[in-house]
């Protein structure tokens, strides 16, 4: 993530795993990790507000607006379609980079290059997990979903060769057939 990013996630492994890394290991304290399942609770919103992130008790467009208002880079779980609705966005690893209204989304080839650079830093040099391997399989589904979205962007842009390459990455990252 870029410095001072805000990342909104939905899954427990991302939410609590990410907070563990921040609190117990001191990793990336500059990143604000927002657990979408907790935004309805007053104490959670108060805790975020004490760190300069005032959010509404909702996971819709008003949350996206509030996050963008901070001026910080915003990343949102792709499943939070109501937060992303109406805002330009593009795949960035396992999340979507959400941009302010009117800001142009990078070209499909640039999105692919951004993600090639991101994934180059991922350590995935191990046997792929099987489809029933719980969180490991879930992580690989997320990786593959990103590249599937990139393949669609490249195909829509008319770059069939790059779309095939992105689809090959999708297949390589999916959990293994058991």
Structure description:
- With 178 residues, the protein is of the alpha/beta class.
- The chain has two domains: 6-98, no CATH class; 108-173, no CATH class.
- The protein has seven helices and five strands, in the order βαβααβαββααα.
- It has a five-stranded mixed beta sheet with strand order 2-1-3-5-4, with helices on both faces.
- Helix 5 packs antiparallel against helix 6 and helix 6 packs antiparallel against helix 7 (160-173).
- The radius of gyration is 17 Å and the shape is globular.
- The protein starts with 5 loop residues before the first strand and ends in a 5-residue tail after the last helix.
- 27% of the residues are buried.
- The mean pLDDT is 92.
Structural descriptors:
globular; 178 residues; alpha/beta
The total of helices stands at 7
Q: Indicate the percent of residues in helices.
A: 40-55%
Order of helices and strands: EHEHHEHEEHHH
Q: How many beta-strand runs?
A: 5
Mean pLDDT: 92
Strand content: 5-15%
Structural class: alpha/beta
Low-confidence parts: none
Concise structural overview:
48% of the residues lie in helices and 11% in strands.
Topology:
Blueprint: E1 6-9, H1 12-25, E2 32-35, H2 42-49, H3 61-69, E3 74-76, H4 81-84, E4 89-92, E5 95-98, H5 108-120, H6 134-156, H7 160-173
Parallel strand pairs: 1-2, 1-3
Antiparallel strand pairs: 3-5, 4-5
Helix pairs in contact: 5-6, 6-7
